[in-house]
Each structure stands twice: as structure tokens, then as C-alpha cells.
């Protein structure tokens, strides 16, 4: 299995999002976000081209829905 290493900027942004979710929806929601993010990153590390390329953004990266918002 690949080791997942977040870029420092991604790590900070993910933590900021987790803090926001926790503040708005509670500790359980914040923990669920962190767990789901880790699971998603593991999946992307093993299948990096999953997702869609028809997302309307000018990037060669695949996009996918993380959750309803």
C-alpha cells in the first residue's frame, strides 16, 4: 500500500475544514470528516484516475463527489 503524505498547504486546509465542520455540526461530524478524508485519500492513492474528467474545470485532474453539501 502507498503511504499518503499531504502537502503542507493541503494539511492546513483540511484541518481548517475539519475545525469548521466541528464548530458548525459537532465533534462527531468533524471526526467523520477526518475519517472519510483518510479513506478517500487511500482510495485515490490506489486508483488515482477514478472520478470524472467532465467536471467543468480547466484541469487534467479527475473530480468526484465527496459528500452531499
Which terms would index this structure?
2 helices; single chain; globular; 55% helix; 69 residues; mainly alpha
Characterization of the model:
- This protein is mainly α and 69 residues long.
- The protein has a domain at 8-46.
- Helices cover 55% and strands 0% of the residues.
- The protein contains two helices and no strands.
- It has helices spanning 8-25, 27-46.
- It is globular, with a radius of gyration of 13 Å.
- The termini are far apart.
- The model has no long low-confidence stretch (mean pLDDT 83).
Task: List the topology elements.
Layout: H1 8-25, H2 27-46
Helix pairs in contact: 1-2
Quick overview of this protein structure:
With 69 residues, this protein is mostly helical. The protein contains 2 helices and no strands.
| Share of residues in strands | under 5%
Helix content: 55-70%
Give unreliable regions as ranges: none
- How widely separated are the two ends? 30 Å
Amino acid at each position: 500500500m502507498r503511504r499518503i503524505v499531504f502537502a503542507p498547504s493541503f494539511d492546513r486546509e483540511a484541518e481548517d475544514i475539519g475545525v469548521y465542520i466541528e464548530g458548525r455540526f459537532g465533534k462527531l461530524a468533524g471526526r467523520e470528516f477526518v475519517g472519510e478524508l483518510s479513506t478517500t485519500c487511500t482510495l485515490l492513492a490506489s486508483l488515482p484516475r477514478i472520478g470524472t474528467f467532465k467536471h467543468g474545470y480547466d484541469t487534467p485532474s479527475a473530480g468526484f463527489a465527496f459528500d452531499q453539501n
